[in-house]
Amino acid sequence: CSSDLGVLASIAVFFYTHSVETGYHLQNFQWRWGLVMVVMIFTAWVCNGARVYFLSRSLGYKLSYLQSLSISLSSEFGIAATPAGMGGAAIRLGLLRRAGIPLAHGTSMLATDVALDSCFFALLFPFALASILNNPKVLALFSQMGTTHMVSLSLGGLGLLASIWLAYRARLFHGLSALLLRQPLCRRHRMQTRLKHLRRKLKIESRRVREGIAHLFHLQRKTLLLAFILASLQWTCRYSILPLILYAFSIANDPVLLFMLQGILFTVSLVIVLPGGGGGVEVLTAVVLKLIIPDALVGVVILVWRALTYHLYLLGGGSMFFWTCWNMKTLFPRAVVDEEEELDYGEELLPG
What we know:
Blueprint: H1 2-17, H2 20-27, H3 32-58, H4 65-81, H5 86-98, H6 103-133, H7 136-169, H8 172-181, H9 184-188, H10 191-216, H11 221-239, H12 241-248, H13 255-271, H14 280-289, H15 295-326, H16 328-331, H17 339-349
Helix pairs in contact: 1-14, 1-15, 3-4, 3-11, 3-12, 4-5, 4-15, 5-6, 6-10, 6-11, 6-13, 12-15, 13-14, 14-15
């Protein structure tokens, strides 16, 4: 099981970074922050359910808040428990349709959520960039590299981008990738299937963002503003966990920078075709955290962070998902869906 790989990776990082100082830091851990972090996770769940509630009502569907919460939490379980998070969208659309919302409007709600999340991180990016440029450790790293090295790296990066663009225009990547995929190692690891899945995933996500942006213009301003506030509050609560863990260990940090780091790691976990990233997220986080905090704390921080932001989502989302399945007839009595609308939308999805 890939979640077991994540646990093993966290434990391996803990033992690799464990030292005498680890016990000293644990003694000074401020446990009151643990309750605050759990409350913030529950707040994120409440906000996610509220987003489904208000967006569905903006389309004229009277979902109850309990239905909305069960849809959002069950979707979180699908994201955490399935490869590349593919089960999240399937569970969400299935439950929305069970509640009487056609596939067209369910997909529109999903796309709107993606667009709002993208807007939140787009607004956050300039502040994260400013934090990086004002970070003493980053500036010290740049100063050690020297002006000559910086210019060389910049020119090398521009040259690499230009080479990639020219190779793409000359369709060299197609021939090179076909040659590499025929190699025994790539066949053994099913690289062709993984690349097809990645391309399909990127295509679907980009289409959802475009649909979401188009749907945003049809929403009432009050509903749009409320949905954006809920999305911002949800991600702020979820991504505040790592900064709070460091504060609990009395380590000063830059929350905005850590927000972007977690966003990147969450994206990586979806790209890796294994539930929860299959241990890759833990290893990447360890590499980055070693540049920020003492080595003796890296393993402990990752264990607590993943327990709250991944395994708690598996537990809470899984509990809600199975409870929803058990009470499906009472929670989601089968609603009438406009079959003509479903057929029209299905025809739009057909190629050509």
